[in-house]
Structure formats: C-alpha cells, structure tokens
Amino acid sequence: MSSTRTLIRGGLVITAAEETHADVLIEDGRIAALAAHGSGAAEGWTADRTIDARGKYVLPGGVDAHTHMEMPFGGTFAADTFESGTRAAAWGGTTTIVDFAVQAPGQALREGLDAWYAKADGVCAIDYAFHMIMADVNESSLKEMDLLVQEGITSFKLFMAYPGVFYSDDGRILRAMQRASGNGGLIMMHAENGIAIDVLVEQALAAGRTDPRHHGEVRKVLLEAEATHRAIQLARVADAPLYVVHVSAEEAVAELAAARDKGLPVFGETCPQYLFLSTDNLAEPDFEGAKYVCSTPLRPKEHQAALWRGLRTDDLQVVSTDHCPFCFAGQKELGRSDFSKIPNGLPGVENRMDLLHQAVVEGKLTRRRWIDIACAAPARMFGLYPRKGTIAPGADADVVVYDPDAGQTLSAATHHMAVDYSAYEGKKITGQVETVLSRGELVIDRREFTGRAGHGRFTPRATCQYLT
Ligand code: URP
Ligand code: ZN
Ligand code: ZN
Ligand code: ZN
C-alpha cells in the first residue's frame, strides 16, 4: 500500500454511471475524494505527487475476467507467465485479472487451486483472483465447491466441449449447477457440443481437411447455439444463475437474449477476437490461420453485428480477453498437419481496453458502456465491486490515465505479451494508456513500466452482485 497522496488533476473521469470533470485524490492506496477541477485546494487537499490529466480520460483500471496464464493445453503451456502476463495487462490499462485455476481429472479442486496460488504468488504486477475450472465433478469436488466459495473463489467453469479433457456430461453439469444454486457460486459455461464436434473433427481429418480453417468449420454455429440453449435449460432446472463465456455466434446471442427476456439470471461474455476478427483470419495461407485458432472459433464477419448489438442492449454484459497465448513458432506449429493439434487460444490481455476504445471512436459503443463492459460489469459479475471497476471514494485506487487522441499501431514488435505474434498486427487505434496506478502505486508512468513483480495481490471475491 502506498502512503503517498496522489492528485490526478484536470481529467474527465469516466465510470459506467457518469462522466465528470473532476480531480481525484488518492490516499493509502484508495480513492479518497473527487472534486470539481481546481476545487480541492479549498477543501485542504495536499498531495506529494500530481498527475496532469488535462485533455485525458481518468478511468477505473480494467478488469479482465477471463485469462489463462501458463495454462496447460494440448501438451504445451500458454506462453505468458503470471509475471509477464500481468505486466502486459498493466501496459494495456488492466489492473485486475481473474484467471482460471485448473482441476485436472482425478484431482481435488484444492490441489488444482493450490497450484495456481503458487504460480501467481509473488510475481504479479497487478491484482488477481481465480475462477475454478472443474474437469471432474464428483461427490467430493461438489462438496469442495462450498469451501471455495467461502475462500473467495466464487465461480466455476464447466465445459460442454473437449471430451476426455475438461468435458462434463449433462448430469455432472446439472449437479454442479444445483450445488452452485445452494452455495451462491456462479457457473461459467464453455457452451459447444464437444461430442458432436469430435465426430466432425474425425471426419474432416479422414477426408484430408487438415488446415486451420477447418477448425472453424467443424465447430459449427449450431453446435454453439445448441449447447447454449441446453446450458440455459439445465440452469433453469437447477434454479441457478449462468454465465456463458466467449460467446461468438449470433444464434448463441439469440439464446441468451431469449432467456433474459424471460427474466432469467443468464449472462454472457464475448471477447475482442469475435468482435474484430473472423474466419477470414483463420483462412490465411501458409498456416498463418493457426494464429487465430481458439474455441469457440472465430465466425464469419456477419456475426459481429449481433455481438455489438448484444453489448449495447445488455444481452451481453462483459468483454474479457480469454487471453491464452501460444507462440506461432513451436506451439501453434504442433498442428501443422492436423488442425486439431493446434493449441487453442489467442493473446489479447494488453489490447482489450484499446480495441474497445476504438469501438467508441467508431460509434459502436458509448464511453460509459466501454467502461461498463470492461471494468464495472466484470467487477460486479464476479464480486469485486465497488472495490474494483469504478472510481469512487473508498474504491481501490486502480486508475488509468488514457489519452483519447494518441495514435498507435498494434504490433508484436511493440507489445509486452510473451508471444511472437499479435492477433491484431498493424491495426491502427486511436487512444492509448498513458499512466496506470494499482492501489495508488504507479505501474505505468507516462508509458514507462514502473511496477514490480509481487505488487499484485490475490483478491478474494464475493458472489455475483447481479443477483443480490
Ligand atoms: O481457445 C481457447 N478459448 N482457449 C482457452 C480455453 C478456453 O476454452 O477458454
Ligand atoms: Zn475538464
Ligand atoms: Zn472455454
Ligand atoms: Zn478461456
């Protein structure tokens, strides 16, 4: 914690609720007060450090509720460690990540979770929390869910995809949902019909269709929509809330919208890759398409309008990155002769705030909706609000000074993620993070990294705040 008093003066403070021309006083790592520009002096404000934010936005630090640092997948590990990944997140204006601890089949949740505590301990540049991936729903892991909720791990990801790896059948899913209904946990669903997909994978490979673009073709829109529908019905039977992760297809958004129109506690997340990239990228020649292999897969461009609309109408509440980077050299290449062996996942933890600001520039989102879907809603969804996700007295002083007029070009040559390509190589963005504070400490100071590994703390979470 910093005992320094910091004054951020002259900026436009943007939260999900309002935009105010205000100075912000930070003390002991928390937001102490806001006051109209220049009026702090009259209230006796003094500061050891003043940050000039004239002409800039003053934003809550981003909350990325879906990352996979060092995630094991397909015989390799995601390339960012908690150290490199949280540093890159800070560069991009994100000050909290919620990563996924993994229970392997046969393991206790405790064992998987402890391994994730150990990976992150003492190396993170920004604050972090965990969801728990449940790959083995059984009597004992169901009981463990209650203990995890008490410990601040209040959300559990289940997979309708990846048979033999993370997959749970409908009976296991129902039982986990029933348990969550009782203990306040939130079930996060990877909604794709993995059993059907595996049949199509086998048929594609047998027919010699081995290129990355076939990854998108076998993971059909209908199989995402069907799984989304099924997950919603199972959640209704269990009387449990549901959060569907990485929604990519228009038809899946329609399932969420229909459920929400009935007033059901069903929530949805999408990711920048589905908003900005498409099957055109998966079809890039010379195996370049492998850079864009993730699940759910990228969809034809026509799906993007429904995702943007869902974000505007609140049928989708959150944009997270699903940051799960694998290098092209040596990792994506594992699937050169078989798309099903390409490790699934894209880098993006550094790019989310900027890409969504670009959407503001292009008129797809308002500034407040940008901050809602990137900061406030993920904090509320996962029990971190108002400590995270807003700028208000008492909140953690996780603050970004953002220059809305700076121009930048996204590139692997300049990014800070430990991966040898950018999914957005060459994309021009208006806007750039200038300065970042985490609990009042400078992590990025006018585009210099001034943070340190180990500043970031594990942050236990309350239960979903959309339900209370
Ligand atoms: O392709 C992806 N999304 N990789 C990460 C694991 C997951 O399913 O979220
Ligand atoms: Zn002003
Ligand atoms: Zn998933
Ligand atoms: Zn993921």
From TrEMBL:
Keyword Membrane carried by entry: no
Cofactor: Zn(2+)
Domain of life per record: Bacteria
Keyword terms, alphabetized: Hydrolase, Metal-binding
A Pfam family assignment: Amidohydro_1
Plastid as UniProt keyword: no
InterPro entries assigned to the protein according to its UniProt record, in alphabetical order: Amidohydro-rel, Hydantoinase/dihydroPyrase, Metal-dep_hydrolase_composite, Metal_Hydrolase, Metallo-dep_Hydrolases_sf
Ranges in a coiled coil: none
Domain Amidohydrolase-related: 57-443
CDD domains: D-HYD
Family named by the database record: Belongs to the metallo-dependent hydrolases superfamily. Hydantoinase/dihydropyrimidinase family.
Official protein name in the record: Dihydropyrimidinase
Gene: hydA
